[in-house]
Structure to design on (462 residues):
């Protein structure tokens, strides 16, 4: 007899299944590929506890956590991050609005500390509340309880699969530290990076460094064992079982088994061989999402103004993809879908809105309480620096002289002046759109499609 509990079916032997696929069989199949013995559990660790990293860990915990002898997952975050009084008060409201969460905390004897924090009688810490299922960047969406580790060595030293949930700006530093703990490892871990952002290097030639490349360089883990997972999704909505899809990109050896292992009824994971380009596109859309937020705030959510901005920003993204990809048309769907959802509800668009409204300022930096790292800010600087290099010059369509590619990207140039050099206010984004000398965005696309722009060296490829 089959019963249904929390969206999963239970077989007569008690094991769970999704869409007719037995979860325990999926787990066993993946464990077998890794050469795990019967008494040796698959060990997964999520490094970094932002919204997406926490949700990703919670999804795996809910799917496979019941098979305790075969699967273990833990999440690492730095200790000592205090929860503000206002956040503690809001968290208390969230807890009391959800009967299931309230009962769970009472059952675990964990409710009293939230009462004391609400009254100001104690301080909560981010790692402490994460154990109860509350991500500091997403307190409105309670997760399942998680095993939290604050010692990095303890978290990663024997992990079979490591999930990189760190911002791109922190990835290299943390994985350089991790590499110290892996010097005597016999087995090679699999690393799945969720990070969307880039660095720019100018020597020996200008090129982009993605988080997977940073991880490879920092740890020496073969690039075939380092993969990227991305897609048009919002972390809280995925946890709340909104239908979503994603792509896991990398070498065939691991991407296909991982796509099968990670797939759930509401979270469809496809696989793709194009690791670097998908990763770069994940960073590029964050750039233009910030500008979209500014336009929305400055025009009182004018649909017309937002559509004008969308036309120009997508034409710039298409132009840039022709520099970065040999077959850019294959990226059009995934890039536009990821851009669309980020413009609608992502933290980068939110950041642009708040800047334009004056509710936050640039002196606060790009790590915002309750939101985490705004990765689009550093990506603006990286893409501008890269596309400003004279060695990448293209022929200007009207002046018929060589110019740096960034000269064909007025939105990117304006965002750089607003966010990086700070020589202009957020109003400059509207001025850029209303510039009478601004070409039809179609012209930019036609130029990109009719010229041999592709520069494989930009992605550090021969």
């Amino acid at each position: 007899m089959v019963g249904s509990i929390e969206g999963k079916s239970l077989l007569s032997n008690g094991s769970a299944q999704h869409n007719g696929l037995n979860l325990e069989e999926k787990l066993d199949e993946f464990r077998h590929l890794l050469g795990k013995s019967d008494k040796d559990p698959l060990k997964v660790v999520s490094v970094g506890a932002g919204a997406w990293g926490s949700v990703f860990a919670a999804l795996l915990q809910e799917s496979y956590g019941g098979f305790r002898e075969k699967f273990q997952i833990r999440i690492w975050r730095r200790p000592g991050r205090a929860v503000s009084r206002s956040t503690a008060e809001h968290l208390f409201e969230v807890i009391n609005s959800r009967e299931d969460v309230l009962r769970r905390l009472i059952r675990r004897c964990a409710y009293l500390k939230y009462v004391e924090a609400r009254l100001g009688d104690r301080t909560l810490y981010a790692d402490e509340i994460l154990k109860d299922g509350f991500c500091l960047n997403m307190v409105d969406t309670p997760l399942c309880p998680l095993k939290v580790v604050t010692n990095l060595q303890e978290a990663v030293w024997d992990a079979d699969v490591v999930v990189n949930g760190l911002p791109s700006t922190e990835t290299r530093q943390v994985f350089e530290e991790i590499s110290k703990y892996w010097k005597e490892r016999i087995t090679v871990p699999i690393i799945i990076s969720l990070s969307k952002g880039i660095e720019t290097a100018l020597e020996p030639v200008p090129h982009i460094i993605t988080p997977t490349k940073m991880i490879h360089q920092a740890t020496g883990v073969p690039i075939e064992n380092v993969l990227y997972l991305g897609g048009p999704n919002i972390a809280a909505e995925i946890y709340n079982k909104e239908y979503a899809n994603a792509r896991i990109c990398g070498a065939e050896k691991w991407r296909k088994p991982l796509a099968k292992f990670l797939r759930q009824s509401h979270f469809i994971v496809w696989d793709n061989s194009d690791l670097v380009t998908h990763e770069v596109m994940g960073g590029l859309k964050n750039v233009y999402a910030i500008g979209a937020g500014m336009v929305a705030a400055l025009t009182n959510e004018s649909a017309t103004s937002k559509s004008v901005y969308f036309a120009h920003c997508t034409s710039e993204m298409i132009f840039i993809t022709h520099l970065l990809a040999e077959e850019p048309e294959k990226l059009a769907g995934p890039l536009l879908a990821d851009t669309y959802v980020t413009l609608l509800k992502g933290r980068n668009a939110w950041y642009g809105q708040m800047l334009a409204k004056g509710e936050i300022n640039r002196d606060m930096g790009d790590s915002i309480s309750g939101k985490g790292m705004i990765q689009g800010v550093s990506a603006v600087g990286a893409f501008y620096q890269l596309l400003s290099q004279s060695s990448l010059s293209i022929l200007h369509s009207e002046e018929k002289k060589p110019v740096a590619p960034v000269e064909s990207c007025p939105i990117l140039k304006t965002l750089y002046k607003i966010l990086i050099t700070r020589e202009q206010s957020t109003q400059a984004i509207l001025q850029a759109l209303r510039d009478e000398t601004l070409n039809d965005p179609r012209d930019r696309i036609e130029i990109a499609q009719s010229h041999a722009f592709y520069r494989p060296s930009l992605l550090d490829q021969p």
